[in-house]
Design a protein that fits this description.
Structural class: mainly alpha
Distance between the termini: 94 Å
Mean pLDDT: 76
Length: 159
């Protein structure tokens, strides 16, 4: 009877495992169906949005063409301004010390900020909680300085 009970218990486990797997499989298929419906609804909304964007782009292109016509008509009045700007650009550079101050402002600010924060970092004890805040400030300041320094020198588009 003990062997029979073990066999029946094993069979019941196999049967219940199979049923549980079948329920899981059906649930997965039902969920997949709902996900497919949701994906189709999202795609339909995306298509409608793209259609609206294309309509707006067509309207913008029409307005741009009208503005270009107006710009062409008014372009003659800007020739005086262009001549004035060309004359001003021929003036040349300022005093050498003024140019030096201009070119050293950003590096001096960057190095000064780094030196100040580094000094504050090393002045704090290694276990001090404020040292972590100063380290975060150093990283923030370094990234800001790099982006400011090099981001400003990015190539200009269209000219």
């Amino acid at each position: 009877m003990d062997i029979l009970g073990t066999l029946l218990g094993t069979g019941a486990s196999a049967l219940s495992g199979g049923l549980f797997g079948l329920v899981g499989n059906v649930a997965t298929k039902v969920i997949g169906l709902f996900e497919a419906k949701q994906a189709f609804a999202e795609k339909t909304a995306e298509w409608a949005h793209e259609l609206d964007l294309q309509k707006l782009q067509m309207q913008a292109k029409t307005q741009e063409t009208e503005q270009e016509i107006r710009i062409t008509q008014n372009q003659g009045s800007w020739s005086g301004l262009a001549g004035s700007l060309a004359a001003e650009s021929g003036i040349g550079a300022s005093y050498p010390w003024v140019n030096a101050v201009r070119s050293l402002t950003r590096p001096a600010l960057t190095l000064g900020l780094t030196a100040f924060l580094s000094g504050a970092f090393f002045a704090l004890a290694p276990g001090d909680i404020d040292r972590a805040y100063v380290a975060d400030s150093l990283v923030f300041a370094a990234v800001t300085a790099i982006v400011w320094w090099f981001g400003d020198r990015a190539p200009k588009k269209g000219g």
